[in-house]
Specification:
This protein has 24 helices and 26 strands. Residues 808-833 and 842-851 have low confidence and may be disordered. Helices cover 34% and strands 14% of the residues. The chain is of the alpha+beta class.
Length: 852
């Protein structure tokens, strides 16, 4: 017995010695392993200056979200701003002992080993034992490689970080960095992405869903794997109860609520793709790509979402109306008739519908023609719904024979459609519904096509240059090319107001008479003379400047440039910012030099505001990620605009107004004379359709059409709003005979203004001091006080103190005008004395502007 006891004691001694030896060896090995893997570890002190990539957001002027740019969609939020319930949900799901361990949870590791042994035997997936601190190490400092070496380094760094940073700092890093699916990084971005909520609005079950994502965002995506996402969410809710964060009753209530995701409402988002892309380009140029995509800039733009909506609609409507005048170009493609491969057509239709090249609008769809008869074409959609295209909506669909030539009238759908055609359809218009029966109306669709022609519509505030709307083309999906800012085209007659402005600056008046007749200009030795003609190849003889502008007379305009000198016109074109450089050639007075819509529209804005320089602006203010303003469009200093307290402030005192530091480009009296003449264009001239459709609305503007009708324009304005329209083919070619700015571009302007000016007061143009309105004969320009009128009488704007010659002929040329290049015969002055315009002591018509 004694011997047995001694043997047992000897065995235990041996085991103890062996164990002790192994412990020593293991400790030494551990120290050596620790020292080995401690070499060349990443510098974890960089976490103190955590500055993660965050989303740059663009907002419209009314606060609606316009666009987001980011490499990682993240919004950094300090821990103090993250609700306690959200923190508790993540701690429950990922590391329930977070506030107790030193970076490594050995209890959690043991539990993970035990669970993995059980799971392996049952064929289940393995679980991990990483703490939140370890996940911070993995996300910030190490790769995601699965190896023993990385896990050892991860553990070492986790312990070091825990000794260096507070638990709250580590949790803040984690909650802002973690990827939570749907392209969202961090809890703030995820709350917006999944629920369109701020974090303080999240319910228990919503916070739990977010906390369920770090484990496997793709696996637990509620949109793709609802059942698994629900199970994981409910597990997190139960873990929150185990941690003592919520009650059993709250668990029962939260777990029975289904997962409900919510995208941003359309009322919270503004859509302006061309505008947003232009802002993106400007931000990239200003701050670089890194700041744009990672800097978390908050950009308030000048966009007015309502005006943008009206601009998009007006431009598309004008492009479609013109395109329909050119006929139907046929189906997009043709598929075999329905048969054995019935599913094949559906798949092909779906693929085509998602092809960006077709630029389908929100209310447009692709359909397949399945049958036709004399009254209708029967169509089917990819969801198996059916509809009809009635013959009544096909009146415009005559086949194109050649450019400008259309085939015979379409009498029945089979004239232009056949079974197997893939076509674009959209809702029938109110005008088309009048030709349909009530039964047909419910099933009817309109046949549509994507216009080949394109264009742009730009709207700005004439007092500030703020761009309020920008439609750079029919649809953004097909191309990012912005025809409002990037397309350089000839403005045609829409440049004439600036030629006439040069005339007013050099002694002409709106009643000055020149000859509208044939004119020839030498182009140099060996070259034929340049002989411009009027649009209708007719001449009106001696006419006033006003009539010449209203009727857009080419030869009168060229003759004016001869009298004042072409360099005076060049100077005005550059001063207004229409051109940077301009050749001193007479063809420029008819708009032969190329410019952009944004430049030309801005120049009209300068006329509208009384001659003050403005620059087109799309960005109102930029704040950095910390809320500091780093850019402001209006940089004027206003001493009384920012008050620390309202104590002692007179509540009846007028608000402070910053000084107007805009440079004066032209005399405001000359600007008003030009406004008055451009108002005449919309009443009696090439833009008279405005007066017919908008009635008594105060409006001014000018049409523009280039040679062969390659480019068509209209730029017009009210006292507080300027809008410019350009329409033409991207690769310049004729729009067709008789297609002009009045027939192609002007309808878009009118349609836009009809919507934009709803409920806006009809304000007269603001008359500056030094202008006197005198009643004159419209045809001759002679004051009716001097000679009885023979036709209509209007109020003409004259600068006080100036002289009106009778019968209103051109003032004598200044012989020392070096700019004049060609001698031309001038009318002989009447022997009657000139009429002096009396001084006007009445106050001017004023207004603050800036209605938009």
């Amino acid at each position: 017995m004694i011997r047995l006891t001694r043997s047992i004691l000897s065995l235990f001694g041996w085991i103890f010695s062996l164990g002790f030896t192994l412990i020593i060896i293991g400790s030494v090995a551990g120290v050596m392993l620790f020292n080995h893997y401690s070499q060349d570890l990443p510098d974890y002190t960089q976490l103190a200056n955590y500055d993660p990539p965050t989303i740059t957001r663009l907002y419209a002027a009314d606060g609606k979200l316009l666009a987001e740019y980011a490499t990682e969609k993240r919004v950094f939020v300090p821990l103090t701003a993250i609700p306690l319930r959200v923190r508790q949900a993540f701690i429950s799901a990922e590391d329930k002992n977070f506030y107790e361990h030193e970076g490594i949870d050995f209890t959690g590791i043991a539990r993970a080993i035990r669970d993995n042994i059980v799971n392996y035997g049952q064929g289940k997936g393995l679980v991990g034992g990483s703490t939140i601190t370890q996940q911070v190490v993995k996300n910030f400092l190490l790769t995601k490689e699965k190896s023993i070496e990385r896990k050892v380094k991860e553990a070492i760094l986790a312990m070091r970080i825990s000794r260096t940073y507070s638990k709250d700092k580590i949790l803040e890093l984690y909650l802002n960095e973690i990827y939570l699916g749907e392209g969202a990084y961090g809890v703030a971005a995820a709350a917006q992405k999944y629920f369109n909520k701020s974090m303080d609005e999240l319910t228990i079950e919503e916070a739990a869903l977010l906390a369920s994502q770090p484990k496997a965002p793709a696996l637990y995506d509620p949109r793709k794997n609802y059942a698994m996402a629900l199970e994981r969410r409910n597990w997190v809710i139960e873990r929150m109860r185990e941690g003592g964060y919520i009650t059993a009753d709250e668990v029962a209530e939260a777990q029975k609520i289904p997962i409900t995701l919510r995208n941003r409402d359309n009322t919270e988002i503004a859509r302006a793709d061309f505008f947003s892309e232009e802002v993106r380009r400007q931000l990239s140029d200003m701050y670089g790509a890194n700041a744009l995509y990672e800097g978390g800039l908050v950009v308030k733009t000048t966009l007015n979402p309502d005006l943008q909506k009206y601009a998009d609609h007006a431009l598309r409507k004008a492009l479609i109306e013109y395109d329909r005048r050119r006929g139907y170009r046929g189906a997009l493609t043709h598929l075999p008739a329905l048969g054995a491969k019935a599913d094949d057509w559906r798949e092909r239709l779906i693929r085509l519908e998602h092809d960006n090249a077709y630029q389908l609008l929100e209310n447009q769809k692709l359909a397949l023609v399945t049958a036709t008869d004399d009254r209708k074409a029967i169509i089917i959609f990819d969801n198996d719904n059916q509809g009809i295209v009635p013959a009544a909506v096909l009146k415009w669909t005559r086949r194109v024979i050649s450019d400008g030539q259309l085939g015979p009238e379409v009498r029945k759908p089979s004239d232009i459609l056949k079974v197997g055609d893939v076509i674009i359809v959209g809702p029938v218009t109110p005008d088309e519904k009048k030709f349909l029966t009530s039964a047909e109306e419910k099933r009817s669709w309109d046949l549509e096509q994507i216009p080949e022609v394109n264009g742009a519509l730009l709207v700005l505030d004439p007092h500030t240059g703020r761009v309020l709307a920008m439609s750079g083309g029919y649809a953004y999906g097909g191309t990012e090319f912005n025809r409002a800012t990037q397309a350089r085209r000839q403005p045609g007659s829409s440049f004439k107001p600036f030629v006439y402005t040069a005339g007013l600056e050099n002694g002409f008046t709106p009643t000055t008479v020149l000859l509208d007749g044939p004119v020839e200009i030498s182009q140099g030795a060996g070259l034929p003379d340049w002989a411009p003609q009027n649009y209708h190849d007719d001449y009106l003889g001696p006419i006033t400047m006003r009539t010449a502008l209203e009727k857009s007379r080419n030869t009168w305009t060229v003759r004016l440039a001869q009298v004042i000198g072409i360099n005076k016109v060049v100077g005005v074109g550059k001063r207004f910012g229409i051109y940077d450089e301009l050749p001193a050639e007479f063809s420029i007075v008819l708009g032969a030099a190329e410019t952009t819509l944004i430049r030309l529209t801005n120049a009209y804005g300068i006329i509208d505001n009384g001659g003050k320089r403005i620059m087109p602006s799309l960005i109102e203010r930029i704040d950095d990620r910390h809320g500091h303003t780093i850019y402001r469009r209006d940089s004027r200093i206003c001493d009384k605009c920012e008050l620390a307290t309202l104590d002692g402030l007179d509540p009846n005192a007028p608000p402070p107004i910053p000084a107007d530091d805009r440079e004066e480009i032209i005399d405001p009296r000359i600007a008003f004379q030009m406004i008055s003449m451009l108002e005449g264009v919309t009443i009696r001239g090439t833009g008279a359709r405005i007066h017919l459709e908008l009635k008594d609305r105060v409006m001014a503007g000018k049409t523009g059409t280039t040679n062969d009708s390659r480019d068509t324009w209209f730029v017009g304005f009210t006292p507080d709003l300027v809008a410019g329209v350009f329409i033409g083919y991207d690769t310049p070619r004729t729009l067709g005979k008789k297609e002009t700015g009045a027939s192609v571009a002007l309808p878009a302007f009118i349609d836009f203004m009809k919507n934009a000016l709803t409920d806006v007061p009809n304000t007269p143009f603001r008359q500056p001091r030094g202008i006197q309105l005198i009643k004159v004969d419209l045809t001759t320009g002679i004051p009716i006080a001097a000679v009885p009128p023979t036709g209509p009488v209007i109020d003409e704007a004259f600068i006080t103190g100036s002289q009106i010659y009778i019968p209103g002929v051109t003032p004598q040329r200044n012989n020392d005008n070096e700019d004049s290049q060609t001698e031309i015969p001038l009318p002989v002055l009447n022997s009657a004395p000139p009429v002096s315009v009396p001084e006007d002591d009445s106050p001017p018509i004023t207004g603050t502007g800036g209605l938009y």
